[in-house]
Amino acid sequence: MLFIELDLQSETPIYTQLVDQIVEGIASGVLQPGDPLPSIRSLAEDLGINLHTVNKAYNLLKQEGLLQVHRKKGVIVQPDGMPGVTEAFEEKLRRQLRSLAAAAAVRGMAEEVFAQESRAVYRAMITNRGGE
Amino acid sequence: MMISSIYLMIGLMLSLQSYLGLRTVLFGIVLPAESLQDPAVRAIRRNYAVLTGGCAFVIGAGACWLWLRHQPARGLLIWTAAILLSIIASGFTMWISRRSAQRLKAARGWEIIVQRKRAASLAAGWKHSAVLSPWWYSANAAVMALCIFFAVARWDAIPQWLILGNFLFNKSVWVVFILNMVQALNITVFLCYHVLISRVRTSLDPEDREGSLKKQLKHKRIHSILAWGASLLMVIFYGVAQGIALYGWKGDLLMLSGILLCAALFSVLFGVMLYLRIQGIDQIKDVPSMEERHWKWLGIYVNPEDPALIVPNINGFGWTINMANRRGILIVAATLAIPVIELILIWPILR
What we know:
The complex is a heterodimer.
Chain A: E1 3-7, H1 14-28, E2 36-37, H2 40-47, H3 51-63, E3 67-70, E4 74-77, H4 87-106, H5 111-126
Antiparallel strand pairs in A: 2-4, 3-4
Helix pairs in contact in A: 1-3, 2-3
Chain B: H1 2-16, E1 25-26, E2 29-30, H2 39-70, H3 75-108, E3 117-121, H4 126-129, H5 137-153, E4 161-164, E5 167-170, H6 173-198, H7 209-247, H8 252-279, E6 295-296, E7 300-301, E8 310-312, E9 319-321, H9 326-350
Antiparallel strand pairs in B: 1-2, 4-5, 6-7, 8-9
């Protein structure tokens, strides 16, 4: 079972924490295509946070093509295959990596070490999916 | 005699309620874990139990004396007043205990760090599966249907004047089926309670997600079984009462079945409370509702920032409604309407 854990004192917005953890759940295989997720109200109640925060997180994931939101079926993980790598996604990835790489370079981390760390994190993320 | 037994049970439950619920919560005041070893904390709980028990004893003794010596015909009124007085006395002793707890917390300098982490499960539907299926209530409905069937089938055999306890009724459709309507109301109310239990918020303890999840699922299951069982027993009791009134069964059966019902309900209730306590299932930490500022007047939860409708009661057994939620106010209004509906049902008979 996948648990969501939020830190209300974190600098990372709550909706971002939600999005990140759901995406990690899908990447690690704990959440499979077609798996239902709690409704917006149910998850907001369980976490004790505003409905709009959960709604925003679900909407973001829906826009990225990772979730489907149906009136009757509720919220489910995309059953029809995950969206592929797009130019927009690559641009977003470059943007996020730029700031991480800059922080690493400022601290004197070698390029190879940075690459190794990135690979290790990626591999740990997909371990549960049988190393796809 | 039945209502005096009910009074005894209620008095006992009121006295012992300080020992229910989270050990780190003392009459709505949140205490740190180290307070568990403090003898002053145990003393406050003990004093509440003794004071409330003492008040219940005095009120009960007074009611007994009044009932037996002066007003034997008004037993129901006297014992009902005694129950209400005991509840008021319990509220007062709870208020005193809460103030003692606040003073103790200030004196010890205990600081509570508000938990800023939240945890929940992403598995949809699991919290509904913890409770009994609503189909179990078809057993209750079957008992009611059987009672109605016999009343219809034996309509002609039912006498013109019906006796129930000290009351005499003229046979009519309303009189014959009034207890079936009460059965229907009972099943509806308990079914609604059952639905509420299945939808209760299940916020997990970030420090023990799996453990708190198991506890909450067990807690819900036990309560749903308890509610179903209580409803079934009451429906059967109403059926027995109808049988006495319509078919001339022995009048003593009403008293006996009433006493058995009360004894069964309270025994099971005590047993469940004891079981929850021993197994630690009553130690449910509902993180979003743990801040004292949201708990008003000894157990009323008001938190506009919390979207949950129903949260675990900070004082122990069961759940309570978030009164900042509009749906919560509707539920309270509907609950208060139940005795009004019952009065409307029996009014034609009383007239």
